[in-house]
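notes to self, project folder thing:

trying the whole complex as one job this time. last attempt i did each chain seperately and stitching them together was a nightmare. two parts in total, labels are on each line so i dont mix them up again. if this works i'll redo the older ones the same way
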Amino acid sequence: MKSFIAILKLTLRIAVRSNIFIMLFLLLNVLVIIIPSTVVDDGTPEGHIRVSLEYCLGAITFILTISTIWVGCFIASGDIENYQMHLLVVKPVSRVKIWIAKFAGVFLLHFTLLLVSGVMVYGRILYEYNRTTYTKEEKIKIENEVLLGRRVYMPVIPSVEEAVKKEYEERLKTQKDLGLQPEKQVANPNDPMSSESYRELQLKKDVYSKMGEVPYGPNGTRVWEYKGIRKVSNNPMFVRYRLYVDKLGKKEQRETMGQWFAKIKTPPQVIEQMRKENQNMAVANIENVFVPVTPYPEKLKGGAFIEFVLPPEVLGKDGTLMLAYANMDVEEKPVFFQLADGPKLLVKVTGFFENYFRGLLMISIKLAFLAALSCALGGIFSMPVAVFFCICYILLGIFSGYLIFMEEQYEEGVEQKFTLNSLDEVHDYIGKKVSRLVLATTVPVQRLGVSDQLADGELVEYGHIGQVFFLYFILKGLPFFALCVWFYRKRELGAVTRR
Amino acid sequence: MSGSTDTPVKVSGLTKEFLDFWRRPKAKAVNDIDFEVKEGEVFGLLGPNGSGKSTTLKMILGLLYPTAGTVTVFGKSPQNVMTKSRIGYLPEESYLYKYLTPYETLDFFGAIFGLSAADRKKRSDQLLEMVGLSHVKNRRVGEFSKGMSRRIGLAQAMINDPDLLILDEPTSGLDPLGCKEIKDLIKFLKKRGKTVVISSHLLSDVQDLCDRVIILYGGKIRGQGSLEELLTVSELNRIVTPLLSAEVSEKILSILKKSLENENIMIDHPRRSLEDYFLEVVNKAREEKLSTSGVSGGGEIAEYLKDEGEKILSQLTRKETPPEIVKEDEALSKANLKLSELTEKRKDTSSPTADGGENLSEINKRLSDILKSENGKK
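result (full assembly):
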C-alpha cells in the first residue's frame, strides 16, 4: 500500500508542479466567470440560468475530458519514454500496481478539479438566480424549470409496424377509390430507390412524420399516453414540449395558438348530471373527461421549448396520464412534434443541490473512464499515438452512435436485405454492421454527458448512473483496460529508445 | 529456472535478438553468453559501445526478456517482485523525476521499498549527506547538473541497502572527487559482503574495483577472469625505490646493462595520477572551507549502511601497528653506499658472462636484499 500511495502522490506532484493543475484551475475559473456574462439566451430569466448552467458545465466537462486524456497519456507513456520507469520497475512493485496508482492519480487530480469547478459553477448559478433584477414570479419559474431534479417520462410510442401496415392499406384504398390499379413494382438493380426495403423505409419515415403531426380542423387533436408514473408526494408535474408550426425545422417559425388537456376521472356528481341530461350516453365515455390544463387562448412560440405545470390530481391511481393538444392555429396550419422531444412529462423528485451532485457523479464516472482509457493506451503506446487512439475511440463512439440512432429512428422493423444492387447499399450495410460492433464493444463517451439534462432540470437517475458504471465501466471498460494492462505488463521497457 | 539462491546472478546461454515490427531479426545484441556473479565480489562487464553490456544488465534487471537462455537473480526470475527488494540499480543516466527534490526522490523510492516514514527520513538524510547534496535537498532535481543527478541516482540505488548493486557506467558524468567517492563506496560495500556488478568502458574504474571481469564484443564474451590473471605481465619487473641520486641511478643502470644486454632499461620518477593530484587540491580547498553551489562534503558512508555491517566495520577500522617509518635520507644514503660497494666489488671480481651476465631475477634479489637490510636495521 505504501508503494501504491507513493506512486499516486508522485503522479499528483508531477501534475501540480508541471503547472498542469494550475493552468487548468485558472482556465476553469475564467470559464465560470466569463460564460454566464457572454452567452446568448432566449431572453427569459430561466433561459439565462439554463444556458449559463449548460454552457458552464459543458465547457468544464469538455476541458476536463481533454485534460484527462492528455494527462493520462502523458503520465503513463512519459515515464516509459523518459526511462523513469526503468528505475521504478526494478523496485519491488508490480507493474499492475504502478498502472493502477497512476490511473488513480490522474483520476483524483481531475476529480478534484471537477469538484472545485463544480462548486464554482453552483455558486455562480445561485448568484445569477439571486440577482435582484428578477421578480418573484421569475424566480419561481427558474426554480420550477431549472433548479430542481425532475424524473422524465416519455409518452408511449404506438406500434410503428401497425401504423405502417395501416398506412399502406390506406394508400391502397385511396388508389382503389381513385380508380387506379396499384402497380406491381419490380426492383431495378440499377435504381436503389426501387427496392422493396427502400420503399418500406420511405413509408416508415412518412408514418413517423405523421405520428408527430397535429392537423388543424375537426381532427386537430393529438393524444399522448404516459404509463408507470410514480407519484412523489404532492410535487407538481411539468410538461416540456417543443412544436413546429407548418413544417419541421427551426427556420421561419412563428407563434401559434393551441391548448393542452389532461384526461381525468370524471367526478361522480358530473357523471350523475350528464346521465340525467343524456340517457343514451355510454358509461365508458363519461367515466373520463379531458379538462384544459393551459389557458385559452395561449400564444405558443414555434421551435422553442415550452413548459407548463400540471396539478398532481390529473395523475391516475394506476400511474397513467393522458395529455391532448388541440391545434388552434390562426392560419389553420398543422403543427409538428418530434419524437425525441416527447412531450416529456416531468415529475419533481429532488432539489437542485442533489440533482447537481448526481450530475457531478456522472461526470466523474466519465472522467474515471477516460483516465483509465488514456492510462491504458499510454502504457502501451507513445504519447502522440496514445492520444490519437483515445480521440479515435471517442469519435468512433460518436459516429457509430449517430449511425445507429438514425437506423433506429427510421429503419426499425424494416427487414435488412443484403443485396449488392449498388455500392451505396454495400457501404450502408457494412457501415451499420461495423457501427453495431463498435457500439457493442466500446463505450459511447458522448452519452456520459449530463449538462443539458441538469440545465433542463431533469433528474439524473441513480439507476442510470449505476447502469452506466456497470455497463460501460465494468462490462465494456474493464476487459479493454485489462487487455491493455496485460500488454503493458509484458512490454519490454528496456527496448524503448529515446528519439 | 535453475540457480542457487545464494548466487546473485547466474546467466546461462543468454541471447537477445531485437526484432523489427514484422518480427524479423534486426540485431543480435547478446549471443549465447554464460557467466556467474558470486556473492561478495565486484564483477565488471567490459566492452566497447554496442557490445551488449547494457542489454545484459537490462535482462538481469528484467527490463528486457531473453530470446534464449536463462537469467536468475538470487535463484529466481528477474521478474520476481520480491527479488527486486534486494537489488539496487544505477542506470547509465539518472532517470529521475525532475519535479521532485532530492529528498522527495529518496523518500519516494524508500516508500516503494516499503520503508517506514522514520526509516525513509533517516536514510534519505544520511544518503544525501553521503553524496554531498544535503545542502540542496529542497531544490528540484531538474535544476541539477549531470554529476549531481548521478549522485542522487546513486543514493536512490542505496536506499534499500541492497545485496546486489548494479551500476551502469557508475562514474559517468562525475568529477574525480565523485569518482573516488563511488569507488570508495563500492570498496566499502565489497568489504560488507555485498555483490556489485559494474558495466563500464572506463577501464581505470574497472581496474580499480573489480575482482573479476568479462569482456564483451559483438554480444559474445571475448575474455574473462580475475584481474590478477588478466593483468599481471609476468615477463616484466618493476622496482620502486625512494629518490635515488644521479650517481646511484647510474650505478644501478650499469648493473642492469651489464646483466641485460640489448634490453630497454629506463629509470625515471613515478608520476601520481591526475586524479590523485585533483583530490589533493579539492581536499585542501575543503579544509579552507571555500563555498560552492555544487556538491559539498560527502564521501562519508551513510550511518545506516555502517550499522548493519558493524562486524566488518570493526575489522576495517581495527588499529594495526603501522610499519616503522624509515627516514628517507638515511635509508637512501645507506642504500647508495651499499650499491657503490657492490658495483666496486663487481668491477674487481667479475666480468659479464658470455650469455649476458647474471640473470634479471638475481639482480632484483640482490637489490631488494640491500634495501630490506637497510630498512630492517632501522
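what i see at first glance: The longest strand of chain A covers residues 255-265.
need to look closer tmrw
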